[in-house]
Amino acid sequence: xxxxxxxxxxxxxxxxxxxxxxxxxxxxxxxxxxxxxxxxxxxxxxxxxxxxxxxxxxxxxxxxxxxxxxxxxxxxxxxxxxxxxxxxxxxxxxxxxxxxxxxxxxxxxxxxxxxxxxxxxxxxxxxxxxxxxxxxxxxxxxxxxxxxxxxxxxxxxxxxxxxxxxxxxxxxxxxxxxxxxxxxxxxxxxxxxxxxxxxxx
Length: 201
What we know:
Largest sheet: none
Strand content: under 5%
Low-confidence stretches: none
Helix content: over 70%
CATH superfamily of the largest domain: Tetracycline Repressor, domain 2
Order of helices and strands: HHHHHHHHHH
Shape: elongated
Mean pLDDT: 85
Number of domains: 2
Number of helices: 10
Number of strands: 0
CATH class of the largest domain: Mainly Alpha
Distance between the termini: 52 Å
């Protein structure tokens, strides 16, 4: 059988331009949400801020809600990628988990939107139509953590790995909501909890 060669198709100029407009729109939307909440987000202001027409944004996102949903999706994907990179960057499970907790605390400290998505705090002002998105993000973070543990410790069963990752996620979010200790201390506490839980399991 003859092999079929499929050439990679380079993105067109129009595709690149559209991607640039989309990225700039999402960044501007995030700034407006943080500054003025949901009511302060208007497609016209986003369009003016990046130098395009409002119709261009309607063509890309369909509505204000569509723009907000795209922003939530991007923030979620970025956060999960950072979390996974922090876990995979260390060979030792304790250090890996401490790194992921510290990454979470640092990122949430800089990003009010991500804080709202993880904890629900400020969601009313930022995204009242998407307040239910926090649970899926926490669940996704838990699942990424469980997958990491199963790769590093293949002898673990799925239930144990998932429970350890969920405990870590809940402890980390509790600190975000009510910080009692410096981030490095919290990171060490959570990582120690995970390791001890796995040891007992």
